[in-house]
Amino acid sequence: MGCGPDNPHGHHLQVRRDGQDVVAEHVFDERHVGAPGIAHGGAVATVIDDLFGFLLYGMGSLGVTRSLQMDYRAPVLLGRNYILRARLVERDGRKMHTAATVAHETNFVATARAVFVAVDLGHFTEALSSADRDRSSR
Ligand SMILES: CCCCCCCCCCCCCCCC(=O)SCCNC(=O)CCNC(=O)[C@H](O)C(C)(C)COP(=O)(O)OP(=O)(O)OC[C@H]1O[C@@H](n2cnc3c(N)ncnc32)[C@H](O)[C@@H]1OP(=O)(O)O
C-alpha cells in the first residue's frame, strides 16, 4: 500500500535519507480523495506510517506501529507536491518514538507522532502462516 510497485492503488512512495531523517516527495491524486479536492486523512496516515517504516529499516530495526497519532493542521490538497519528513525522537528499549511532518513549501499541513515496537522476523512469518491457513480453510 505504501511503497511497493505492484499495487495500482498504492502510493509508490520513494524515500531517501537526509542525515538522520528520511524524506519523500508525494502528490496525492483522485485515488486518495476524501472530501472533493482533499486527500483522505487515512491516505495521509498511510504514507506517514510507511515513511516511519523506512526510517526504521534504515536504522536496521524491524518494527511495527503500536500507535500513530496524526495532527491535521490544514487540508492536504490533491495534485500538490508535499514534502514528507520523519525522524527518530527517542529509543527506549523495544519502543521507538518517531515524529513526522507533511509540508508544502513552508506550510506544515500535518504532523505525526508514533510508537513503533521492535519485533523479530517471527512476527511476520507467523502472520503469513496464519493468513495462509485461513485462506486454505475457506
Ligand atoms: C516474510 C518476512 C517478511 C518481513 C518483511 C518485513 C517488512 C516490513 C515492512 C514494514 C511495512 C511498514 C508499514 C508501516 C508499518 C505498519 O503498518 S505495521 C502494521 C500495523 N501494526 C501492527 O500490526 C502491530 C500490531 N500489534 C502487535 O503486533 C503488538 O501489539 C506489538 C506491537 C508487537 C507489541 O506487542 P508486545 O510484543 O506484546 O508488546 P507490549 O508488551 O504490548 O508493548 C511493548 C512496549 O510498548 C509499550 N506500549 C504499548 N502501547 C504503547 C503506546 N500506545 N504508547 C507507548 N508505549 C506503548 C508497552 O508499554 C511496552 O513497553 P515496555 O514495557 O517494553 O517498556
UniProtKB/TrEMBL annotation:
InterPro entries: HotDog_dom_sf, THEM4/THEM5_acyl-CoA_thioest, Thioestr_dom. It is found in: Cell projection, Ruffle membrane; Cytoplasm; Membrane. Its main location: membrane. Its EC number is 3.1.2.2. The lineage of its organism: Bacteria, Bacillati, Actinomycetota, Actinomycetes, Micrococcales. It comes from the Bacteria. Belongs to the THEM4/THEM5 thioesterase family. It is a peripheral membrane protein. This is Acyl-coenzyme A thioesterase THEM4. Keywords: Apoptosis, Cell membrane, Cell projection, Cytoplasm, Fatty acid metabolism, Hydrolase, Lipid metabolism, Membrane, Transit peptide. Pfam families: 4HBT. Residues 37-105 form the Thioesterase domain. It catalyses: (5Z,8Z,11Z,14Z)-eicosatetraenoyl-CoA + H2O = (5Z,8Z,11Z,14Z)-eicosatetraenoate + CoA + H(+); octanoyl-CoA + H2O = octanoate + CoA + H(+); (9Z)-octadecenoyl-CoA + H2O = (9Z)-octadecenoate + CoA + H(+); tetradecanoyl-CoA + H2O = tetradecanoate + CoA + H(+). It comes from Terrabacter carboxydivorans. The keyword Transmembrane does not apply.
